[in-house]
Write a structure and sequence with these properties.
Helix content is about 80%, strand content about 0%. By secondary structure, it is mainly α. Helix 1 packs antiparallel against helix 2. About 35% of the residues are buried.
């Protein structure tokens, strides 16, 4: 592998913008899958395919980072941002996968609220990633992401409280839903 001394900074920005777009695409698929489950028509295979597209973008970002001597900003920051974006998408895909694995027939209102927050958060991620070069709007996006994360924490606590308060819910379903909620919360935290 050769290091290039000629900067290809625009490639980094293009790939980050693509990763931000991918995060939003996956969040929208997952949100629709949760909101309309089981009649959404969105399959886990579609979600997995969208997640795999971003794996390629992450791989391209890391490969570009490893071959460039000059980078648009700190190498560690580029690496961490690429991994963090990929983690958002991975957690979304895993939460979606749990619907089928756990045989969940009807998502809870709290899970739907979490996925709605994730769409809003990935919209902010997309905006921030698209504007990395100019930094235009990034501060506002970060403030909104923090607000959405705080709201997500509240939805998670409310959802867990509702699960544990309802004696009619099968204890195994409580465990399953807690796992789904945690995956969605980790995705939101990674935003």
């Amino acid at each position: 592998m050769r290091l290039s001394l000629t900067p290809k900074t625009s490639e980094f920005y293009v790939l980050f913008a693509q990763a931000g777009e991918n995060a939003l695409d996956v969040a929208r698929l997952v949100e629709r899958r949760f909101r309309e489950h089981p009649s959404s028509g969105i399959t886990q295979e579609q979600v997995k395919a969208a997640e795999t597209v971003n794996d390629e973008v992450t791989r391209d970002l890391i490969q570009l980072l490893n071959t460039q001597y000059l980078t648009p900003f700190d190498r560690d920051d580029i690496y961490m941002l690429a991994i963090q974006l990929d983690d958002v998408i991975d957690e979304l895909e895993e939460a979606s996968d749990l619907l089928g694995l756990y045989g969940i027939e009807l998502p809870t209102k709290h899970a739907v609220q979490q996925t709605t927050l994730l769409v809003a958060a990935t919209e902010q991620l997309k905006l921030a990633c698209a504007n990395l070069k100019s930094f235009k709007g990034i501060q506002e996006a970060l403030v909104e992401l923090k607000r959405l994360e705080d709201e997500g924490d509240r939805v998670l606590r409310d959802g867990l409280a509702a699960l544990f308060r309802d004696d009619r819910i099968d204890p195994l379903m409580v465990i399953r839903w807690k796992d789904v909620y945690d995956r969605l919360e980790r995705a939101l935290d990674n935003c």
